[in-house]
């Protein structure tokens, strides 16, 4: 029999070998087929291991290209291209995302191809886990490298469909990229097969029937068109798969107080988490604490660079229904999602006290910048001083510490009285902790792929696209009122559904790598009018060529066949 070797932790996609001596860390097909019970678990462990390296660039590509975060300045790291939209194919993080994704696909495919179904419930469940991982990878790869589904999916290119090791590895000539439609169909087919085979509940760090249903609800939502031109067939399927998961009763939304600590719970002990990629402290090196996702968002306990912060736009969105006050002496979260933000308040070195400032964002020519002007109180009169200029604060909502000033440029700026937040370069450090502190372990984080909160929002959007606004409102308010007590909307209709549902997705799913894809799949433009080194007044439309990432040049160079690049303009 031809020997097919599957590396357990470092699998080379599309690899095979005809020699008789098995390489270290591999298994040949005779061993696997002859004793599947003993072989499957280490093979599955290797498959899941690929998700760990894949999840890092996955997060950066989805989140950095959105409008929830800012960076203190330009960077030579390859991830800066995701922020700046200066797309290039020679990006090692893109290569990592592609390679790890296809290694997981290859590992899953070889398990599927070599193990027969029907031997036992446990083996069928293991095969179902492989289908889940493969289907999930095809979806994530397609949404990164293929255009939004509403834009001609029959002709736009998705990703290559390569399910398993070809028979003749010495003379391989693999097919070019499938279309977006075909790539989505492959993902759906795999996930439906996973749904059929997955009958055991092994916890949130393993694939499950409900995990497959959660991704299917999202995929069909991505296929459901835009709010102005919805596809009712796919919107209905998004509802049906959300129904299946919600009605299973296996998951519950965390109460508000617990939700505000969501990031600190391990996924196995989180009633809302459906599937997460498990990380453990013992494998989390000091390198990860600095260079991992959480380490870029905050410095906690002396660990991490802390060079990326919540954007001014996201802070404003959090404060829309009432000011969130992070000051230790008056801590109050109006929106529970604000609990994942941690400003770095700094005490005066001489007095040991916090310095009060009036913080606002001003227009400085064609650039937006923060100002933190020291304030002085004289009875009921409050003044703020910036350089040699002094301004009288005009109350907007004095109880919440919200004021405005008429600035020297003649413009009226609104801001808040707050403690001074330490700066990195010229930017106040609004640290983000949503990707840190799991088990209170600095930047330990198990990336969440699916949770119940998202599934309710999937169903809300699908209902809205079907014109069922009452049902959409119920789901939307279930999520909104958990975070904002009494903040639910009184009504929802065609005039406001798009804005309100998309806003809630941004608030709820921030720092989970969804935002940029959510904007473009609904045909909207991305605006990032807030302080930071990016192009602040550039609107990136859903039809912009930069909405999709380039196929990594390394992948094109090594591909056995034609692998078409995405357009460069």
Description:
With 569 residues, the protein is an alpha+beta fold. The chain has a domain at 308-432. 37% of the residues lie in helices and 13% in strands. The chain contains 17 helices and 17 strands. It has helices at residues 29-34, 36-64, 80-84, 92-114, 121-145, 180-197, 209-222, 232-247, 256-259, 286-291, 293-297, 312-318, 452-465, 469-483, 497-509, 515-521, 553-558, and strands at residues 69-71, 273-276, 308-310, 341-343, 356-364, 367-378, 381-386, 389-392, 394-397, 402-406, 412-419, 423-424, 427-428, 430-432, 448-451, 526-527, 539-540. Helix 2 (36-64) runs antiparallel to helix 4 (92-114), helix 2 packs parallel to helix 5 (121-145) and helix 7 (209-222) runs parallel beside helix 13. The chain is globular. The two termini are 49 Å apart. Mean pLDDT is 92; it is low at 1-26.
Brief summary:
The protein has about 575 residues and is α+β, with helices and mostly antiparallel strands. The protein contains 17 helices and 17 strands. It starts with about 30 loop residues before the first helix and ends in an 11-residue tail after the last helix.
List keywords for this structure.
alpha+beta, membrane, globular, seven-stranded antiparallel beta sheet, 37% helix, 17 helices, 13% strand, 569 residues, disordered N terminus
The neighbouring-strand order within the major sheet is 8-7-6-5-11-10-9
Sketch the major β-sheet: 7 strands, antiparallel
Number of helices: 17
Radius of gyration, taken over Cα atoms and rounded to an integer in Å: 25 Å
Low-confidence stretches: 1-26
How many strands appear in the DSSP assignment?
Answer: 17
Q: Considering DSSP H and I runs of 4 or more, what fraction of the residues is helical?
A: 25-40%
The fraction of residues assigned to DSSP E strands is 5-15%
Category from helices, strands and their pairing:
alpha+beta
Distance between the termini: 49 Å
Q: What's the overall geometry?
A: globular
Arithmetic mean pLDDT: 92
Organism: Gelidibacter sediminis
Domain RagB/SusD: 272-567
InterPro entries: SusD-like_N, SusD_RagB_dom, TPR-like_helical_dom_sf
Subcellular location: Cell outer membrane
